[in-house]
Amino acid sequence: MALLLAQAVDAVKREDFKTCEQSAFCLRHRQFAEGIAETAQQPGLVGSDQPLRSASPYSVVPGSVRLDRHTLLALVEHKDDGVPLKFELTFLAGGTVRVRAQEEAPLAPRFDDTQRHTLRDEGSALPYASPESLQLSSTTANGAVVHTVNFTGEAAASSVRITEQPWSLTYLRNDKPVVQLNSKGFFKFEHLRKRPDGDDAGSADGEWEETFRTWTDSKPRGPESFGLDISFVGFEHVYGIPEHTSPLSLKPTRGGDKGGYDQPYRLYNLDVFEYEIDNPMALYGSIPLMLAHSAEATVGVLWLNAAETWVDVAHEKSSFIGSFFRRGSAGGEPTVSTHWISESGVLDVFLFPGPSVADTYRQYAAIVEQTPLPRDFALGYHQSRWNYLDEADVLTINDKMHEHDIPYDVVWLDIEHTDGKRYFTWDGAKFPNPVAMQERLGRDGHRVVTVVDPHVKRDTSYSVWSEANERGFFARTKDGSSLQGWCWPGDSSWVDLFNPDAAAWFSELYHLDRYNGSTRNLFIWNDMNEPAIFNGPEITMDKDALHDGGWEHRDVHNLYGMLYHKAAADGLRTRESPSLRPFVLSRSYFAGSQRYGAVWTGDNTADWEHLRASVPMVLSNNVAGMHFVGADVGGFFGNPDATLLTRWYQLGIWYPFFRAHAHIDTKRREPWLLGEPYLTHIREAVRERYRLLPYWYTLFREASLTGMPIARPMWMEFPAEKGLFAEDRAFMVGPAIMVVPVTDSDAMLPVDVVFPQQENWYDLHTHELYVGPARRQFSVGLADTLVFARGGSIVPTRERHRRSTALMRRDPFTLYVYVGRAGTAAGKLYVDDGESYGYASGAFIERDLSFANATLVSRPSARTAAGAAAAQASFAASMSGIRVERVVVVGLRNPLTQATVREGGEERTIDLHCGGSQVDAECVVRDPAVRIGGDWEIALA
Ligand code: NOJ
């Protein structure tokens, strides 16, 4: 393992990618912050009994503050430059505050469309606070002018205080500071300016031109970056801002903390070959959403900017903040200070005040649409490799899965299936009849996914290239010609998806009459959409390349992948009428990408370190609202041994997106090639995934409405247990299942499991009881996995072995009741047709299941009532034959003998089969035959 580790660490080509010091604007802001921090250390500032102020040169222009309906307006100026900045603070319902800033009269417009691409309804209809709920007051104390807006946040009196000189903003809940902006004085705004005269005037500090290796960025607009410190007062942990390979609780990046990084976290979508673990380098996706959590509260920040962004994190004690707001306090509240730096665009930040995890996600979901319900098959097992060679190969995969009784849903085709990497085509020799192939797979409910990458081969005989070329749809160089670069097919161009006509045209290429050889059974994988350009700076597009409206690539870089993903999702959605839900996997993403499909963590490596790192990566994405995510099971590069591959399946079934994938140079590794006992263990794991699909689907329903993550860090379910705040091995799948992956090759090593809270936990397979709080060690053989059901939960399953999800659609359900310490349990079941948008008009069944007084009760959830009655009734009728075939009650105090079933005014008594000990009995109600859509009760006695 040591050798593998060393290989992985050596492999990434760091020199291909910039450090903060090599990114001129990042360096300017970091140096500015260092200067400010030094000044703040000087005696006379810290420790004086004056209200402590940072050394920020930016102040509110006196007399400029006013409240206009739900927005507070203020002008802020640097003491030397006389360029007023317009600040807008908008108050939203639920206590969210949005802060925007840019020049009051910019020399040229700044890019401000990130909101249009990310926010609900393009940002046009945010849930504003009512103007009557806001009161502005202003005071002067010791010469300091402070403006306060009082309002009602989420169940708490809240206020925002703005000091004038220098400016800073504090969000307070019940008079306690929670989040502060510019309290450290790192705010710096590079206003747009005219280029100074002279030959190389102004190129110092990389303001007007910057060279990295052999590439020169011409920067025609000069410096336009900005930075701001955001401090979370009373917090020791921050999470989110994927995509990095750091631990879940983000390590500090400066401030002298031991064991931290020396670089900020970078958000700049990049194709990083053989990325390394435990690193703040940028990767394929960027979501500038950060959460802070303490035993008292959770809060969030969305930094809505799609340009290159860096985030420094420091763990501090906030003495001056504490003393400013609470005189006489000893100070020293733990604080996480962050410093956000973006290259261009406007400053646009949302503060979500929580205070619970659910509140924070509700506040985020109010402004950004969450993961929509996926196609049911997309939650199944995806079998991929670069590449399945031809039709015979694909059909063999299908046959072997059947032969070995492994359920699966999708076979994936990577770039080699095309005619010379011309996407939307097939290699005719290898895939002479793709339609017949898809139909053959479709007989058992299986599907095909093909890859469509954004580089368009420059070839006049390729219709995609010639149409785009004719219509001027390609992104352009700074000189206005079609941008050219190198990727898989050789010389290529990239469609400018910021041009709405180009995006509409491109999405239609996915239609059945445009994409030859595609059927309704074919779905899409978008890879390389950062975009990856092999001969571009940092393997991507030049920042001074141009998009629709004359915007530079610099302004929009982190949006490109999302718009490419959107075009595919739009294309699939509109390829048939009525529309069915699309399925599209993307490598690159931004905040809001969750609306278009799944993502994965890119090119990982087949070693234990990458297996371990996949957990915090999947969790960090979930924290940031990207729920439908997984890592390549088995590892992309290299050959996993049979133990690693088995363990990876045993973990991978708990990723929301579950796909096995491998590099073209690796050995074949489909499960049956491993032989026994591995094949059996893998089959068992995959079957576990299928058994629990009703639970997974219900979690996706929850996520779609509330934004609650699917794969959850332990702290989300146990928010007061400090010992779990940095846990990034064990995690929760929804509220009911705890997964403790085995992440080591040595089976002899005992695995530590922490059972949180005063609660019962049951081994998911043996139902053995563990009572929390407790820490236990388990010795595990390869057949053993450490997965536990939380007492107090009800988990719906389907237990019949089938070949695919489609073949399970009319199967009966089994309900598991895991009795909690209080003798009760609760859960949900959500069912719809798994493919259409009928759910939007009420065609679904959603039940609240509860267990108390030894009685299991099914009632409609409040949401069912909100749907349209006709659609509901007809869906319920279509499901009337679907019953509960078994109820398993785990953890009863005493074995009981009979079950009374009440449904539709009728009552029946059936035998109950109980086993186990007096204190921990397990009872099975065989075939109570209640309908899943009906109201019923099963009383045990
Ligand atoms: C890079 C992707 O990350 C990988 O999954 C894929 O197999 C190769 N490109 C080839 O398409």
TrEMBL record:
Q: Which GO terms describe its molecular function?
A: alpha-glucosidase activity; carbohydrate binding
Instruction: Extract the SUPFAM superfamilies matched here.
Output: (Trans)glycosidases (SSF51445), Galactose mutarotase-like (SSF74650), Glycosyl hydrolase domain (SSF51011)
Which CDD domains does this one have?
GH31_GANC_GANAB_alpha, GH31_N
**Domain annotation Glycoside hydrolase family 31 N-terminal: ranges:** 87-312
Q: Where is it localised? A: Endoplasmic reticulum
Q: Which residues form the Glycoside hydrolase family 31 TIM barrel domain?
A: 371-699
**InterPro entries cross-referenced by the UniProt entry:** Gal_mutarotase_sf_dom, GH, Glyco_hydro_31_AS, Glyco_hydro_31_C, Glyco_hydro_31_N_dom, Glyco_hydro_31_TIM, Glyco_hydro_b
Pathway involvement of the protein, from the record: Glycan metabolism; N-glycan metabolism
Q: Name one GO cellular component term.
A: endoplasmic reticulum
Report keywords, A-Z. Endoplasmic reticulum, Glycoprotein, Glycosidase, Hydrolase, Signal
Parts forming coiled coils: none
Matching entries from PANTHER family are given as: ALPHA-GLUCOSIDASE, BCDNA.GH04962
Name recorded for this polypeptide: Glucosidase II subunit alpha
Q: Which organism is it from?
A: Coemansia biformis
